[in-house]
Amino acid sequence: EQLGSLGTLVCDMEPETIVASDPGILENLKLCPALTGAQRDALNAVLLEGDTVYRDPSSWDLWTLQNLGPLVLALNQTTLSLV
To answer: Where in the cell is it found (predicted)?
Structure first.
């Protein structure tokens, strides 16, 4: 519930906060026009845990990539190599 009210405020979150947050934070991160390198690293760390609505990257398909939306541009080589 609280994540929904944060909106784009997550765009200013520290990477450590992103990693420590509920995985639902990813939906808010989709609203960010740009993420720092450290925020992208945090995003990938959350995705690699596989504890999101997107599951483990090794199970992703075209539907998953489409639903990741703009976050696809923040995926690193480690995450992409599992797809």
So the answer is: Membrane
